[in-house]
Amino acid sequence: MIFSELYSAYYHAVAEILKHAVDHPLRKNEMRRIVEKYAFGESIRIVEPALTQERWQLLLPDGTTPVRAAPSMPMTLIQKRWLTSLSSDPRLRLFVDEPLDFGDVPPLFTQDDICLFDQYADGDDYTDPAYQKNFRLILNAIRNQYPLRIDMINRRGKQTHMNVLPKYLEYSEKDDKFRLFCLGHHFSGTVNLGRIARCGRCTRNYQKPFSREMPPDPGSVTFELSDERNALERVLFHFAHFKKQAEKIGEHRYRITLWYAKEDETELVIRILSFGPMIRVTAPSYFQDLIRERLSRQKNLGL
């Protein structure tokens, strides 16, 4: 990482020690507490001698410091360029009203420098003011746990209304979409944020409580993987947003179980087939039938 050695935990720990030493003589037990909080417990063996002995000479024997003012941690140019690059990501506007502004500092990279070859092109429109407004309201409702009234467009193109209690948001890098996991009176599951036309705080008092728990995932699939051409790493990345379990069953062979929501089933079949002979579905038989059916349809179409 860019900042792995710059302003690391050790820098923050030493800066905090000196800040306290400028204010009052620092005792050894106080110094140790600071190091444990900002660095690592064993770091005191390195930091304390370096501060008090000839190496840095920043702490005197009485716990005071020759440093006259508390140290500050100003941003470096590379940090500003990195943050400027991040602020060009349209998803950032979902969380902040205005992007970061460091004047004429050039970005370290731009969005045009990023080439995505394994992502769908129909992702959510993060620049849409209505989408941004809905996202921020949903995020606030999750943090403060209050219900929302949601008007959304279903798959048939018709508008429906729901009163739900938002639980958490999930982002799919593959789909480039956000999904909301929520609880309702007659519905508990996921909603694509891109389908939400509008939402607002639900002020109506309901006697019937919202569901207390999310329904269990209706399906799982288990497959064996042959780790050829870095297949294991690609599979774990490809299915990163699914709950999963992986175990090694032989040399270069792995057994992987994925848990998925019903609405992801067809997409999951397509994704598994994209790995070809490197993946062999072993359970359940229902999912194996889906694989066979899909292959049969492709054969009939001459694909």
Description:
The chain is of the alpha+beta class and 303 residues long. Helices cover 31% and strands 22% of the residues. The chain contains eight helices and nine strands. Helix 1 (9-23) packs antiparallel against helix 2. The protein is extended, with a radius of gyration of 27 Å. It starts with 8 loop residues before the first helix and ends with a helix.
Number of helices: 8
Distance from N terminus to C terminus (CA atoms, Å) equals 43 Å
Radius of gyration based on Cα positions: 27 Å
Beta strands, count: 9
How are the elements arranged and paired?
Elements: H1 9-23, H2 28-38, H3 44-52, H4 77-87, H5 129-144, E1 148-153, E2 159-172, E3 177-184, E4 188-192, E5 196-201, E6 219-226, H6 231-238, E7 243-250, E8 253-260, H7 265-273, E9 279-283, H8 285-300
Concise summary:
It contains eight helices and nine strands. A hairpin with a 2-residue loop joins strand 7 and strand 8.
Highlighted features:
303 residues; alpha+beta; 5-stranded antiparallel sheet; 8 helices; extended
